[in-house]
Amino acid sequence: MADSVDAGVASAVGRYVVTQERSLDRDCTTLGRHVLQQLQSFGSDAQDLSALMNRIALAGKLIARHLNRSGLVDDALGFTGATNVQGEAVKKMDIYANDVFISVFKQSGLVCRLASEEMERPYYIPENCPIGRYTLLYDPIDGSSNIDIDLNVGSIFAIRQQEGNDETGEAVDLLQAGHKQLAAGYILYGPSTVLVYSIGRGVHAFTLDPSLGEFILSHENLKIPSSGKLYSVNEGNFGQWEPAMQACVQYFRETGGYSSRYSGALVADLHRILFQGGVFLYPGTQAKPQGKLRLLYEAAPLAFLMEQAGGLASDGRQPIMDIVPEKIHARSPLVIGSSEEVRRVESLLQRGSD
Ligand code: AHG
Ligand code: MN
Ligand code: MN
Description:
With 354 residues, the protein is α+β, with helices and mostly antiparallel strands. It folds into 2 domains: 29-219, Fructose-1,6-Bisphosphatase, Chain A, domain 1, CATH 3.30.540.10; 230-353, D-Maltodextrin-Binding Protein, domain 2, CATH 3.40.190. 36% of the residues lie in helices and 22% in strands. It contains 8 helices and 15 strands. The protein has an 8-stranded mixed sheet with strand order 4-3-5-6-7-8-9-10, with helices on both faces. Strands 12-11-13-15-14 form a 5-stranded mixed sheet, sandwiched between helices. The mean pLDDT is 91.
């Protein structure tokens, strides 16, 4: 009798272990493994991309941890008193997150240069440069105005292959179109921390499980709806737009069913649009025709992602992915989201300029 009870328990345990293993196998796909699966290769390029994505994930975890405790930690919130190359007041969290990416990639061996919103010139890691074939472009904290009030912020990233030896130290090979991106994505620090990435094989989302300290695959092959009833734009700037852009927003206001959603963090607004459809706009103004958003580490990475998800990204007249920046911190107007809404905006802008 005891034997049969033991045997029953053993078999139940066995079943439990098998079930757990299966469920781990099925449910717990980590980022590094997913990259290798996507590339169907264990070659050196695939290993590099997998390692790079793991490093980005580590930066995301460190930043998420700091954000989670920011109200309790000295010197986490508020301004530094400095102004960055964009002429914007720098927050302590911008600098913290900027430094996190640098220190994480110093140890990667793979990245020779980092170009960020917070640094006038690219940051070189000389010890990596003989072997570091990649450059990381990033916006360490996107939506900085949300930090001190505990609302959503994000990080945006792109990886490009370094071309040439960059002997002048000017990183001119970065002044190329978005098609040169090997990988791009964002991390959203919201109720969950979510990392969304593409290496040119669809768009995939990973959610940070804080108890495991791992990003786990939560949404594979995300596709944006071809149309959606959301528009996201800072309407406080309405009076500064060209009439054709005013007509676009007027269209969304007056056409039935559209809702306006704007959080002050591009990553958060884009995440909503990726899942629900619609369009995000950050137009130029008469005073600043190129708008506010930066091409290399905001617009182009998100355009790469959006096209991979079946949507579009435009400056209103041409695809963001085709634009060649004149300088590292170049800006561009941005119209990004569902194909139907982006095309609608482009055609209204075209009509306005005819
Ligand atoms: P950042 O915090 O990196 O400077 O980016 C802020 C960006 C973007 O996240 C957001 O959509 C937009 O600026 C908000 O700007 P406005 O306050 O002008 O709407
Ligand atoms: Mn930003
Ligand atoms: Mn920023």
